[in-house]
Write a structure and sequence with these properties.
Layout (H helix, E strand, L loop, with lengths): L8 H8 L3 H8 L12 H14 L2 E7 L5 H9 E9 L2 H10 L7 E5 L11 E5 L12 H11 E12 L7 H19 L13 H10 L3 E6 L13 E7 L5
Parallel strand pairs: 1-2, 1-4, 2-3, 4-5
Antiparallel strand pairs: 5-7, 6-7
Keywords: Methyltransferase, Transferase
GO molecular function: methyltransferase activity
InterPro entries: Methyltransf_25 (IPR041698), Methyltransf_Superfamily (IPR050508), SAM-dependent_MTases_sf (IPR029063)
Amino acid sequence: MFSPEGPSLRELAVQALSSVERGYDLLAPKFDATPFRTPETVLDATASALHRMGPFGTGLDLCCGTGAGIGVLRRVCRERVTGADFSAGMLAVARRRVRGAGPPVDLVRADARALPFGPAFDLVVSFGAFGHFLPSERPQLFAQVRSVLRPGGRFVFPVAAPARPGSAAYWMLLGFDAVMRVRNAVWRPPFVMYYRTMPFSALGRELSGAGFRVRLQPLPEFGRRADGSPRVRLVVATRPQDR
């Protein structure tokens, strides 16, 4: 799973027994060499879809990590891009990565559940972060995202189709979540990272409850499953215009 540049088994064990924040501080220098980083194929497909929706003025990468999503925003935003994450280590790596042409970038250490912004953004994206929030925390998280969007602004993120019951991916994700639940039952501080806590049905309901209009857009680059359903969708949640 890991390249030679990635973390060792010992390093992963230390990170897994830390808090989420401390674990990512430790993992940050080698994070981009792990399978946890969002693949370029997903980033490119999302950027292509956003190009068709845009252009946008200002953008926020929520839980930006080492800055993979910031690169997407710099392709589709004209004015300014912001990355927010609560790991100082991940932000330090992101600062080193931000270079080249594009709008200026601000990197802010912040908790996604208490964002230090007003309604300043036309677009918010997030990649691979929602497993770090318990189901009970998502309504607050989505309300925070809505609060930092301008009227008409969009909250956009990719979601893969759920693994089919009985498939290898299904059992792998189920096993991972089970291990994390046992770990959090016997060890403190907790490390919240689950893969199977955000079904489509709950996602649409919670975003609508936070005041968004929600639609799902297939990402054609990933094709369709045997039953015709998209392998990957883009969630597009829009803050309605004020009346």
